[in-house]
Design brief:
213 residues
Length: 213
């Protein structure tokens, strides 16, 4: 079960709350980009970035020179997947079908080299499953220039909206089309780098995600 705190308890639309921890995992594993909210040098910042998950920990990375990642401390991370545009008979009741998560916690700078590499592997594999073992791993200089942060999933909430529009009773007779326009995410055909030194086929771990698969 997900934790319930003053920060994660929904104040509105409580029926959209999900309390099963598997709902959080499913959303984080399906999405690719998060938005990380931090305060750096007194300035609030929201940084879009990629992440990877190992159990109950999210791993993020960036340059050691990035001001937003040097801050550490309290953070709020959000992830959203848009599943559909909900078109109602009235403008007021238009909405979106979505899955969203909000995670609160303290960013921890990962210093253990084994955990750092595990976090970087999780990040790479989350974006491109099978990629880590197919490429050159980061070298000493690259690792030294990279900051790896960990955020525990101890305090999180999940919100989900599904289904058709919910119009007012008096609007149901209006001659206005209502329904849902689904939103799907697909990967296109792989595009080979123009400077590829060898005539290589697209590897299976990439091709199997392309559309059409």
């Amino acid at each position: 079960m997900l934790s319930t705190t003053a920060r994660t308890r929904l104040g509105r639309a409580k029926h959209k709350a999900r309390t099963d921890r598997s709902d959080l995992y499913d959303l984080l594993d399906a999405a690719l980009v998060c938005h990380l909210g931090v305060v750096a040098d007194g300035t609030p910042m929201v940084v879009p970035t990629c992440y990877g998950r190992i159990g109950d920990t999210l791993y993020l990375h960036g340059s050691t020179g990035a001001r937003s990642l040097r801050a550490g401390g309290e953070a709020c991370l959000t992830v959203t997947l848009l599943d559909g545009i909900v078109l109602a008979r009235s403008a007021f009741h238009h909405s979106v079908n979505h899955r969203s998560a909000m995670v609160y916690g303290v960013l921890r700078t990962v210093t253990d080299e084994q955990e750092r590499l595990a976090g970087l592997r999780a990040l790479t594999e989350h974006l491109a499953p099978g990629r880590w073992d197919a490429v050159r791993p980061p070298g000493p200089k690259e690792r030294a220039a990279t900051r790896v942060l960990a955020l525990a999933l101890d305090e999180a909430s999940v919100k989900v909206r599904t289904g058709p529009p919910v119009d007012d009773e008096e609007d149901l007779a209006l001659p206005v089309w209502a329904g849902v326009l689904p939103v799907h995410r697909v990967f296109g055909a792989p595009e080979t780098a123009p400077d590829l030194a060898f005539d290589l086929p697209v590897p299976d771990h990439v091709a199997q995600r392309a559309y059409p698969a």
